Amino acid sequence: MECPKCGGGSYLSEEELVQVLNQTEPVKILIKAVYQCRACQEKFSRLVYDNLENRKKQATDQRAFYSNRAQTREQTDTEPAEGLRFF
């Protein structure tokens, strides 16, 4: 997303749920997304529609990713590194 003031790049600063649209199939949500410019530090917002089913799927995928990552980290912390020699 480009900054409307200076044209610089921006990042998603925060999201706020505005409304859940139950009448649509699949269920959609209206979100107020607040972005912050990396160059001038100006904040600006946009209203965004998103699919609620996709949001739920992303949340479960992220939880699974982080739990697998934590398990892998625990295993590597307890096992000695293979092929390393200390002089």
Could you give the topology of this structure?
Elements: E1 10-21, E2 28-37, E3 43-51, H1 52-78
Antiparallel strand pairs: 1-2, 2-3
Description:
- This protein is an alpha+beta fold and 87 residues long.
- The protein has one domain.
- It contains 1 helix and 3 strands.
- It has one helix at 52-78; strands spanning 10-21, 28-37, 43-51.
- It has a 3-stranded antiparallel beta sheet with strand order 1-2-3.
- β2 and β3 (43-51) form a beta hairpin.
- The radius of gyration is 21 Å and the shape is flat.
- The mean pLDDT is 80.
The overall pLDDT average reads: 80
Tally of domains: 1
Unreliably modeled segments? none
Order of helices and strands: EEEH
Put the structure in a nutshell.
Helices cover 31% and strands 36% of the residues. It is an alpha+beta fold and 87 residues long.
Keywords:
alpha+beta; single chain; 87 residues; 31% helix
